Amino acid sequence: xxxxxxxxxxxxxxxxxxxxxxxxxxxxxxxxxxxxxxxxxxxxxxxxxxxxxxxxxxxxxxxxxxxxxxxxxxxxxxxxxxxxxxxxxxxxxxxxxxxxxxxxxxxxxxxxxxxxxxxxxxxxxxxxxxxxxxxxxxxxxxxxxxxxxxxxxxxxxxxxxxxxxxxxxxxxxxxxxxxxxxxxxxxxxxxxxxxxxxxxxxxxxxxxxxxxxxxxxxxxxxxxxxxxxxx
Length: 231
Ligand SMILES: Nc1ncnc2c1ncn2[C@@H]1O[C@H](COP(=O)(O)OP(=O)(O)OP(=O)(O)O)[C@@H](O)[C@H]1O
Ligand SMILES: [Mg+2]
Description:
The protein is of the alpha/beta class. The protein has one domain (about 35-45, about 75-225): Rossmann fold (3-Layer(aba) Sandwich). The protein is built from seven helices and ten strands. The chain has helices at about 50-55, 80-90, 105-115, 120-130, 150-160, 180-195, 205-210, and strands at about 5-15, 20-30, 35-40, 65-70, 70, 90, 165-170, 195-200, 215-220, 220-225. The strands form two sheets. Strands 6-7-8-3-9-10 form a six-stranded mixed sheet, sandwiched between helices. A four-stranded antiparallel sheet has the order 2-1-4-5. Strand 7, helix 6 and strand 8 form a beta-alpha-beta unit. It is globular and about 45 Å long. Bound molecules: adenosine-5'-triphosphate and magnesium ion (MG).
C-alpha cells in the first residue's frame, strides 16, 4: 500500500448552538490514495460540508488530525494554514464564494495571484480554464451577472487554477444541467487519471456512481465506504 495523500484520524467537530452541542463529526478516520476520485454522500446535516472544511483547513476540528502527504496539517499555525491550502488544495464551496466585485476572469486570476504566478501565465491559464468550462464569452461578467450554474463553473475553474494535489468540491454539480454535470464529472475524472485527488460531496447518484469510491455519511460518522473499482 502506498503512503496515502490524505489521512484523517479520529476527527471530531462539535459546534455549540447556544448551549446545545451539535456533534457534526464524530471520530472519523480514513485514508485516501493519490489519484483517487471519491464521492461523499449522505443526508442533509450528516456532516459532509463540515468534513470538507476540516480537510481543507478552513476550520479546526475539536479533536483529531488531518495529514496531507504525511504532514500533520491540523498542527499548522494560523499563518501557515493559508499557505498549505493555497499550495495543496483547491476548494469548490457549496455556495461558490466568488468575489462579487471581480469578473469571472478576475476570480480565477486572483487564486493564481496569491500563488505568485506571473501575469502572462495567469491570463493564459484563466482563459484556458474558463473556455474549458464553456464560459469564454462570459469571462468579463461579475458573479451577479451570471447564472447559478455559470457561477459554479467559475468556482470549479478557480479550484483547478493552481493544479492542487487535492480538489475538495461541495456539490459541484448542484446547479448545472445534466450535460454540464456530465462534462464536469468527465473533467474531474481526467484530473484524477493524471494523479490529482478528488473528493466530491454530492446528492446526485449520476455523479457518485461514476467515482472510484463512495463514502456514505450519517450523523457525523462514516456509515459505509465502498470501492466501486472504476480504475
Ligand atoms: N457553524 C455552525 N454552527 C453550528 N452548527 C453547525 C455549523 N455548521 C454546521 N452545523 C451543524 O452541523 C451539522 C452538520 O452540518 P453540515 O453542514 O456539515 O451538513 P451537510 O451534510 O453538509 O448538509 P447539507 O447536505 O445540507 O449541505 C448540522 O447539524 C448543522 O446544523
Ligand atoms: Mg453541506
